[in-house]
Write a structure and sequence with these properties.
2 copies of one chain form a homodimer. By secondary structure, chain A is an alpha/beta fold. Chain A has 2 domains: about 130 residues, 3-Layer(aba) Sandwich (Rossmann fold), CATH 3.40.50.2300; about 150 residues, Rossmann fold (3-Layer(aba) Sandwich). The first copy, chain A, is built from 12 helices and 12 strands. In chain A, strand 3, helix 7 and strand 4 form a beta-alpha-beta unit. The longest helix of chain A is centred in the middle third of the chain and has 16 residues. Chain B binds a DNA duplex (16 and 16 nucleotides) through helix 2 and helix 4. Chains A, B: This is Transcriptional regulator, LacI family.
DNA sequence: TTGAAAGCGCTAACAG
DNA sequence: CTGTTAGCGCTTTCAA
């Protein structure tokens, strides 16, 4: 049992027998050998440079550089669980509303060394589930940018990985949201300042959280300013929905309209114009979202812009905080401020109130003011 | 040295000492123990079911299921190098042009069990490089959906990972492209059939490959149909560029205009209308790309739609073939067919040719025909 | 068909 | 500050 003295000690096996530095990408072992240090030192030189002698670190980096060594994130992820990846789930990547949000999230993630996995649901709950399912083991956290999932499904998800919801309020799930109250106040103030006394709200989907918020805020602020409000709808949150709203629109009643979103506003304007109405001559129109297209319509649409980019970056920022160990309660929900872009679809109401339905008149060329594009927001 | 008979054999060390099945997610070892098999058998049951007895496999899957076991893609990636991830690099995720392409790529990847990493360059070459750099070690291949990189940089990249370029022709790098010739032929045929005899081309960036293709094809097909062509520009590929083109536009010369892309066409129309021109009364306008907005302008824009979705899915399809070992030469470049959407911005030329600059007239309400949205393409 | 054992490339105690 | 030594969870020869 006891080895005889002259018996050679077990071969030191200093560094375990690794595959020779064949071709393929160099590893820390290759660098270690070339630099004459232990592999763990190389590892430290890259992952915690402060734990290594400055000179040694420099030498290692030099050797690594000319060997073309690059840390392998996968190999690093295995022992640490830190994949440096987060997922961004959207219900529909095709929806113009989300571009800036995605970009804001992307940029914030990249800045912190995180890579973004895109999980597009393509409008299907099943695809969303499946996509998330596949992605979960790989990511450290998830931003739910828009989702069709139920509250309970989201809570479930939040048990497996840190989750931040965007523009959705679910108890126990931290989120970042737009300041819907402020956005409506901006719309109302603008119209009121112009002299409008009645406003019609083109309602969006009843299930949409934002829709309820908008209507409630509208009543509140309009009331404060002595403005009469009414609501028609609900309509689909699309240009088609807006067109239907135009057909329903009681022209004599309101000199101003606030639509659930830009798409509805645009569809509404187009249809109304085809009926012979003048905008903003007969009716002023305000939308929400400031989608790219809203600066390209005739007339250009006055709209309230959500802080999309900020929404995206804040979501990621908070998510990374969560991942870093912050408690969900610490990550306070934050309502981000909006901004109104005044363009050509709003003006003072006509002094003589008569319906455009009585006497359709030719339109005037679109005027241009404040035609800022979304990207400058 | 030779162990005495009664000496116990080295402890079997059957399965190496792993951390007890503490909390956290179950591993193949947990499943193996619960199912009474070796960990390697569990591994096989999931990665190559055909190499395992059907019953055993079934039992293992059952045990795994109720343990809640799920294969860990990261752990699998380490020994095999198969991460099941591909990267999709875009120069600007905010560009409406790419939505459907991204979605097509995403869907194709998901279908084959691949996850898509989004690398948005945010218009910066530096960010693009850096993003790609970070992502390379993690992905099995890359789709370059739009990129600012130089040809040589791309060839470099292609040495590290399989690469498919979209709408870009680089020797030695397989690609998928739109059939630019066909798309221009569709535009010319449409205008010719309407009776136009002269066409003005609003040129895009000179560096853009598509721009050269379009102009060349235009000359070719217009020639075949006896149509006179001229070109003005170059202009930025934006609505602003189109507006500048409108200022330059020699109204008397052409009854029809083909723009480099939809954005240019839209900017052109708006500015021309503000000058008092009627579209399509005075000038017919055709764009390229069929971006979302083109169905929402007044008048709605006639445009030639690239097969974006197909472009995306084909790119991924070919990329996976490459990853699967297909030789680059096998993956033949393919020019995908386009489709023209005839809307309200084109009509037969006015019988009496006079310049709208002489006598601006009030516009008519937009007509509606073929106002299909991009998503239905 | 199944089991044992050696890694994939990197991190992380624990000594020294 | 640096080297040694176990693994992270899975795949994969090689034997049995």
């Amino acid at each position: 049992m006891t080895p005889s003295p002259e018996q050679p000690a077990r071969p030191a096996a200093a560094e375990p027998r690794r595959r020779s530095s064949a071709r393929s990408t160099p590893t820390i072992y290759d660098v270690a050998r070339a630099a004459g240090v232990a592999s763990s030192t190389v590892s430290r030189a890259f992952s915690r440079p402060d734990r290594v002698n400055a000179e040694t670190a420099a030498r290692i980096r030099a050797v690594a550089a000319d060997l073309g060594y690059r840390t392998n994130p996968l190999a690093r992820a295995l022992p640490t669980g830190q994949t440096s990846m987060i997922a961004l789930a959207t219900a529909d990547i095709t929806n113009p509303y989300y571009f800036e949000l995605i970009r804001g999230a992307q940029a914030a993630a990249a800045e912190r060394g995180y890579t973004t996995l895109l999980a597009d649901a393509q409008e299907s709950v099943a695809i969303e589930r499946e996509g998330l399912e596949r992605v979960i083991p790989t990511v450290e956290g998830i931003v739910l940018a828009s989702t069709r999932m139920s509250d309970s499904a989201i809570r479930m998800l939040a048990k497996q990985r840190p989750v931040i919801a965007v523009n959705r309020d679910i108890s126990d799930v931290p989120n970042v949201v737009t300041d819907h109250a402020m956005s409506m106040r901006q719309a109302v103030d603008h119209l009121a300042d112009l002299g409008h006394r009645q406003i019609t709200y083109l309602s969006g989907p009843e299930a949409a959280w934002a829709n309820g918020m908008r209507w409630r805020s509208l009543r509140l602020y309009a009331g404060e300013r002595g403005i009469h409000v009414r609501r028609i709808g609900p309509y689909a949150p699309t240009a088609g929905g807006g067109a239907r709203a135009a057909a329903d629109f009681p022209a004599v009643r309101s000199s101003a309209v606030i639509a659930y979103n830009d798409l509805v506003a645009i569809g509404f304007m187009r249809r109304l114009i085809s009926f012979g109405a003048r905008i903003p001559g007969d009716v002023s129109v305000v939308g929400f979202d400031n989608i790219f297209t809203s600066a390209l319509t005739s007339p250009e649409l006055t709209t309230v812009a959500p802080p999309l980019r900020t929404l995206g970056s804040m979501a990621v920022h908070n998510l990374l905080a969560l991942i870093g160990g912050a408690s969900p309660t610490t990550v306070r929900p934050l309502a981000l401020p909006t901004r109104i872009y005044v363009r050509a679809s709003t003006a003072a109401p006509a002094t003589r109130r008569r319906s455009w339905r009585d006497a359709p008149a030719p339109r005037e060329p679109a005027t241009t003011r404040g035609n800022r594009l979304p990207s400058s927001g």
